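Trying the structure run again after the queue cleared.
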Amino acid sequence: MAVINPNGSLKGRVALVTGASRGIGEAICARLAQEGAKVIATARTAESGESRLPGALHDTVDRIRKAGGEAAFIKADLAQAVERERLVEEASALYGSIDILINNAAITYFIPVEEFPEKRFKLMMEVQVYAPFHLSQLVIPGMREKGGGWIVNISSPAGIHPKQPYGAARGGTVYGMCKAALERFSTGLASEVYQDGIAVNVVSPGLVDTPGVAVHGLINEATKDRVQPIEYIAEAVYRLASGDPKTVTGRVDYAEPLLKELGVTPAELV
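Done. Tokens:
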């Protein structure tokens, strides 16, 4: 049975997780809390009924608190720079400066390039690329003062170049662009902050059964065998958010191969 260990490996650490109202973000919050982290969950959906998708920040935090962990939520729209600044300011006032930043939030439209509206293109780039960039800028000074920290960005196999023979596309070019940019940002930032003891890594989840995946119809007869348990993603993120920043940084990892490399079995989630 999964439990919260208040004296776990993340005791005293403050973790900020974006896109945490449901799915992968919620699972990451639970996993970090199980190791004793003080978790701050953020997303646009604070209460049930505010989104067409199930899940809300209140649910994520209640899940952790009922299990004996420490968590709070801050509602924020990461498409807005002023909201990102407020988020980090309020999070730091609540628990202290951020030790662990998990950039998981995303907004996605699957539309062919020829038809892709400029407004939606800019929104996807803002949330999936510039928001992780900006949030990293905001938390790095505090991490540097503490002598280190961890940033984990959530990517996707969509960031890999399509290979021939080409078939019918689903309009995923812009999504792939965002994830490719996020990965290149991650490895570049890892090199820049290496001497500060700050690790920057990427977890690429693959196909996971979440509300967001369901709404886009990405799990079907052709893909169902590739679905990965959400516990794998949460475990991979935890491992990259707690490793030695001098040796575990600049990595772009798929969850299952990483866990096999480490000889780790995913923990059950509270």
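The two ends are 8 Å apart (CA to CA). Worth checking whether this holds up in the mutant runs.
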